Amino acid sequence: MALSLTVNGDRRASAADPVTPLVDILREEFHLTGTKPVCREGFCGACMVLVDDRPTPSCLMPAALAEGSDIRTVEGLGTGDALTAIQVALETCDAVQCGMCFPGMVVTLTHLLATSPEATRDDIRAALSGNICRCTGYERIVDATLSALAVK
Amino acid sequence: MTAGTLAQGEATGTFYIASSLAAALDALNDYGPEGAAFAGGTWIMRAPIRHQPLKTRHVAIGKIPELTEIRIGTDAIEIGAAVTHAALASALADLPDFAVLTAAAGRSANPAIRSLATIGGNLATSDFSAADCVPALLCLDAQIEVSSRSGRERMSLEAFLTQRSTLAPGRLLTKIVVQRSRHKTAHARLPLRKAGDYPVAIVSLSFDVDTANYVRAARIAIGSVETVARRWDRLEAALLDRPLAPARAADVAAELAGEFVGRESVEVPPWYRVSVLPRLVRRATAAALGA
Fold first, then answer.
1. CA-CA distances (angstroms) from residue B269 to B34, B89, B209, B226, B261?
2. B200: burial class by Cβ within 10 Å (0-12, 13-18, 19+)?
3. What is the ipTM metric for this complex?
4. Do A90 and A72 share a structural domain?
5. pLDDT at position A91, please?
6. What is the pLDDT of residues A122-133, one digit of tens each?
7. Contacts with B197 from chain A: Cβ below 8 Å
8. pTM for this structure?
9. Who's near B247: CB < 8 A, 6+ residues apart?
């Protein structure tokens, strides 16, 4: 039985096995390669996507459980050519780094901006505790998030 | 199986999303040893990393209303087995008698994992020694409800821990029940990034302290040091009927810590897990007194 997934607003079908990690379907079948499979243990956050607006490590989500949910990857956050507020802030603050962890960071911070408009530096650090940056560039990412919150 | 959604794959078998407890128990019973309950999935989905085969049939229980409820009563709280860590920490945040459980559920892993991982999975995964909620619930003297097609039974968490790895197919942890009290409780853990952010040692404690600050009852549980979390009976006895003080509790813990044999792992040597216990006892005791 084919799986039916709603990804970035589009209905997509997959013939993958139901316990296939969502990250693998996103990348290998739908070619949404912003989502990275790195640790495959839920620690690093590189595979983070929004599932019904909730940050979710897609390496730990079997595809069958994602049916019926709204899945949003980093490719689906902006509208057309327009960047989101956090994307603009990260670019403006020169916080963008090697690209491995970064899509997951953007996904997590998108949720933070939507749900915690009064977030403090500590709140941002706590929110990012599941997003590991090998470049160790956290501070500029936190600063950029604070600037995005200030704009809102 | 009538209530639920069935997905079938060629390589990995079936994935049944149960919409009721009865349907889940039926499926688990029918699948027998080939089946497994799938709650948050944060352990099962990592089976390939551990070079372990997945079961061929899974029964997802995370969408069963009965298993995702938290009932807070005046005498006890009841926690459905599929309640996530995040939901549990949020629900108990204003209950000081459950500070230990709020901390255990609210500080484990990272926010995204806490939104997936369930309390039942934390207790039922016998290979996971670093589970925060196990020592927290041991010090709260939790009762466990196990259900099957033939009915429900209650047992202590300690009893459940001894039989969880051999639980017969078709039997499922469905509920955790904890009596309310005026005890002072706290949870202290030492996570290391080197250990994948898992705690290398956990101290959960619950004290009944009188108005003169004397300990009238104590329950202290240690997690992650040995393979299975357990009570620290000798430390409890040594603190009883004496004034509660973090420094003294740490000193006594240092004297008694030799009874623990740290588990082997690639992250830290066994002795290290034991060596940090006195400091964690001190930290947890101070937190309990401040609660």
1. 36, 31, 36, 12, 11
2. buried
3. 0.95
4. no
5. 94
6. 999 999 999 998
7. 43
8. 0.95
9. B282
**Is the distance from CB of A59 to CB of A41 less than 8 angstroms?**
yes
pLDDT band at B190 (very low <50, low <70, confident <90, very high): very high
Minimum Cα–Cα distance from A22: chain B residue: B45
Range of the structural domain that residue A70 is part of: 3-76
Cβ neighbours of residue B262 under 8 Å, at least 6 residues apart? B225, B226, B269, B270, B271, B272, B273, B274
Q: Write the pLDDT tens digit of every residue in A50-80.
A: 999 999 999 999 999 999 999 999 999 998 8
- What is the structure's pLDDT at B7? 72
B45/A62 touch (CB, cutoff 8 Å), yes or no: yes
Q: Are residues B53 and B74 in the same domain?
A: no
Last residue of a domain, one of A76, A97, A126: A76
Tell me the average pLDDT across B183-200: 89
Extract the tokens encoding A126. 């706590």
- In our burial notation (b when 16+ CB lie closer than 10 A, e otherwise), range A24-44 reads bbbbebbebebbbbbbbbbbb
**What pLDDT, on a 0 to 100 scale, did the predictor assign at position B5?**
77
> What domain count does chain A have?
2
Residue B291 confidence class, pLDDT cut points 50, 70, 90: low
From CA A101, how far away is CA B230, in angstroms rounded? 38
Q: Quick one: closest CA in A to B48, which residue?
A: A40
Kindly identify which residue of chain B lies nearest to residue A15, measuring between CA atoms. Answer: B9
CB contact under 8 A, A42 and B116: yes
Contact residues, chain B, for A55 at CB < 8 Å: 111-112, 115
Instruction: Find, among B92, B78, B72, B209, the residue nearest to B142 by Cα.
Output: B78
Q: Hunting for tokens 């128990």 — which residue is that?
A: B25
Residue type, B196: G
- Cα–Cα distance list, B57 to B4, B10, B21, B65, B261 (Å): 14, 12, 17, 22, 37
Do B160 and B248 sit in the same domain of this protein? no
Q: Report the distance separating Cα B185 and Cα B205, nearest Å.
A: 5
Based on the domain organization, do B112 and B188 belong to the same domain? no
CB-CB contact of A95 with A140 (8 Å): yes
